[in-house]
Design goal:
Elements lengths: L3 E2 L6 E2 L2 E7 L3 H12 L6 E8 L3 H8 L6 E6 L5 H11 L4 E4 L5 E2 L3 H10 L4 E11 L22 H5 L11 E3 H6 L11 H12 L1 E13 L9 H18 L3 H24 L3 H9 L9 H28 L1
Parallel strand pairs: 3-4, 3-6, 4-5, 8-10
Antiparallel strand pairs: 1-2, 6-9, 7-10, 8-9
Helix pairs in contact: 8-9, 9-10, 9-11, 10-11
Length: about 325
């Protein structure tokens, strides 16, 4: 697939736009960008959206002189979806390839995925298997965690149920398809890429490559380290999907996963000493709870039972005093 002229000014449009958001992380960012430059497929542009990084990162980005790279300078918002959407809005390629500032690609990634999309006209997007690396770039092996095997075709339900796992730097998608589903949901602060992939999977089949063509980095600076906020966002995601699908089985699955996540969120809040928030989370699920006896068991044993007696005992002690 060759570049095409831009009708606006006669310049050449790239086939692929690499979307790379960043906020500092300079040592990881260098490696991510280097992995893009190492691609065997050269018909790309890179749109870097800088979310108000410190001067060290900004100086590095200003020093990139390759004409294929453009940087958008943003005021810091801390919202990854908003930052990615800003980059997508200026992208010119037919396809969007997503790369996070702490991950890296294998050299043949774009070449193999573009070939897969060209040979599968029914597929508007593609993803690959991934491996994991640590902060120093060494293989990160967890023998207890076996990642699901990539599946192609219509994968909405397997993706929803986590029978399929898709990492952000593994995806290449038709820009028109991403626009059709509305891009990233800027209100979805965590799980935003899973949300996007679910909407892509509703609209188009996926081309899946079994070969691990990207590396996900495990380190201490992940945005998703706030587990309470992350669980609240996942509850929102399940409610959202339940609202836009008409399939009874999918709706039931979303409702069940939302209830399970509410227990996990309440447990985290309870463990952190925020009993009022934990009971509030449970209270917000009561109207759905009659279908889920196991939810009641978990709520009573794990959260309500330890919390309520403590409150009552404190009241008794005050009365005795």
């Amino acid at each position: 697939m060759k570049s095409v002229p831009d009708p606006a000014d006669g310049s050449t449009l790239p086939t692929v736009s690499i979307i790379l958001p960043t906020f500092n992380r300079i040592r990881f960012l260098r490696q991510a960008i280097e992995s893009a430059f190492a691609q065997t497929y050269a018909d790309w542009e890179m749109v870097i959206a800088d979310d108000g990084s410190a001067e060290e990162t900004r100086a590095y980005l200003r020093g990139i002189t390759d004409a294929r790279v453009r940087t958008i300078w943003l005021q810091h918002c801390g919202n990854p979806s908003r930052v990615r959407n800003a980059a997508i809005a200026t992208a010119r390629g037919r396809y969007l390839a997503f790369l996070d500032s702490d991950d890296v690609w294998a050299p043949s990634k774009l070449q193999k995925q573009i070939a897969a999309l060209k040979s599968s006209a029914q597929c508007g997007w593609s993803y690959t298997a991934c491996d994991r690396i640590d902060a120093n770039g060494h293989p990160f092996v967890n023998g207890r965690l076996q990642p699901p095997v990539p599946q192609g075709g219509w994968i909405f339900e397997p993706l929803l149920k986590f029978e399929v796992a898709i990492a952000m730097p593994s995806v290449v998608a038709d820009r028109a398809l991403v626009g059709q589903v509305g891009g990233f949901d800027e209100e979805q602060r965590f799980g935003e890429f899973h949300d996007l992939c679910l909407r892509l999977a509703l609209k188009s089949e996926a081309a899946a490559l079994q070969e691990p063509l990207c590396s996900i980095r495990a380190h201490e600076e992940h945005y998703s380290a706030n587990r309470i906020a992350a669980h609240a966002s996942w509850m929102r995601l399940y409610e959202k999907v339940e609202g836009f699908t008409q399939d009874p089985g999918v709706r039931a699955c979303c409702a069940r996963m939302r209830m399970e996540t509410s227990l996990q969120l309440a447990s985290l809040q309870h463990a952190g000493g925020d009993y009022r928030a934990a009971l509030g989370t449970l209270g917000g699920s009561l109207r759905r709870s009659w279908r889920y006896p196991k939810w009641w068991v978990g709520a009573l044993k794990g959260i309500a039972k330890p919390a309520v007696p403590g409150v009552l005992m404190a009241a008794l002690r005050r009365r005795r005093g």
